[in-house]
């Protein structure tokens, strides 16, 4: 259609990571688990976390304000603001309405969009909402901003090392550097209790670990099948058609298994006679739904796809391995990590596959085409953010545990004044300064 704006997609990205982290090797020792359980078994190196000074509102305030400042945007030029998060601190008031405080000086109150919630999928749903607005009769020619943010923390136990925190804010518009390929989207939705948060008095989720993995891998199969059906030459589309594939990352090892899973799908789709899959005849009658926990198939296809993984997916795990699971922001931290792994001159023309998953469950797969529309500026800003990894403060597992205990004890308290040290925050960070007796939250910004 001629009336669609050209090259709609992501024009700029800004990500926010906590200023504090804990080392996963030290956490293994502290938790008295076997050496390598977190670092090798899960593929995690470090985990970022927030004190009681930060909540989802402050993370989003920091991400949006810095996105705008770093890219010379006028708040008056933003017509839609979408938030994806599962970190709920109010059952009625949206995070988006808190962010409107940033728009007050510009006098721009005509901004559509609110929050979208479903586990780790909310950021992708928010992105799709922004894209739909821009390609609809409601679009008024202005830009959109999508912010995905979460604080992922768990009760003591096996799941705690898979936590993390962060935010990713994206500027959406035409003439983008990262063009969302129109019409190429596969989606799979179903009902499952694999991970959920029924206890509103706690930040900790309820997790069925085995079911969660099964749901994730099945959703991946279904989304890939759906995505391929949208390709005109679907029968000839496989991993070779992608220069990179980024995944939602609960923990890095699952991402490696996911890439192997797509390779298994390609093998099945090839009719198992393709010369590209020698020595795999014994798997010719494989039934995908019966293989989620088949160690032999998992090991075989991880080994066969290792080179593809090293080339196309491992570079996307920089932030996931050093910050942890950001829930809604996770898959977009993977996109950021891949983009900074290559020289900007090598990026134009690249095709990036994206798989987004949220428990409960909701999932989608889509693809991005990289175009040289001010690409060097986008990458330059991202690399400045990556430098922050080396500027963080490492706390001991004991200190990390104390921080989580303070967060849990202070949850929903009112009035409340955070007790943590503001000097540990990065400059330019918004933080929670106080909560009054009516539970109203007030925020200030560190200079």
From TrEMBL:
The active site is at 86 (proton donor/acceptor), 120 (acyl-thioester intermediate), 248 (proton donor/acceptor). It holds the Pfam family HMG_CoA_synt_C. It is an enzyme of class 2 (transferase). Residues 4-176 form the Hydroxymethylglutaryl-coenzyme A synthase N-terminal domain. CoA binds at residues 158, 212, 253, 257. Pathway: Metabolic intermediate biosynthesis; (R)-mevalonate biosynthesis; (R)-mevalonate from acetyl-CoA: step 2/3. Its EC number is 2.3.3.10. GO terms for molecular function: hydroxymethylglutaryl-CoA synthase activity. It catalyses: acetoacetyl-CoA + acetyl-CoA + H2O = (3S)-3-hydroxy-3-methylglutaryl-CoA + CoA + H(+). Signal peptide: none annotated. Residues 178-446 form the Hydroxymethylglutaryl-coenzyme A synthase C-terminal domain. Gene3D superfamilies: 3.40.47.10. One of its GO terms (biological process) is acetyl-CoA metabolic process. CDD domains: init_cond_enzymes. Keywords: Lipid biosynthesis, Lipid metabolism, Steroid biosynthesis, Steroid metabolism, Sterol biosynthesis, Sterol metabolism, Transferase. Belongs to the thiolase-like superfamily. HMG-CoA synthase family. Catalyzes the condensation of acetyl-CoA with acetoacetyl-CoA to form HMG-CoA. This enzyme condenses acetyl-CoA with acetoacetyl-CoA to form HMG-CoA, which is the substrate for HMG-CoA reductase. This is Hydroxymethylglutaryl-CoA synthase. It comes from Aphis craccivora (Cowpea aphid). The lineage of its organism: Eukaryota, Metazoa, Ecdysozoa, Arthropoda, Hexapoda.
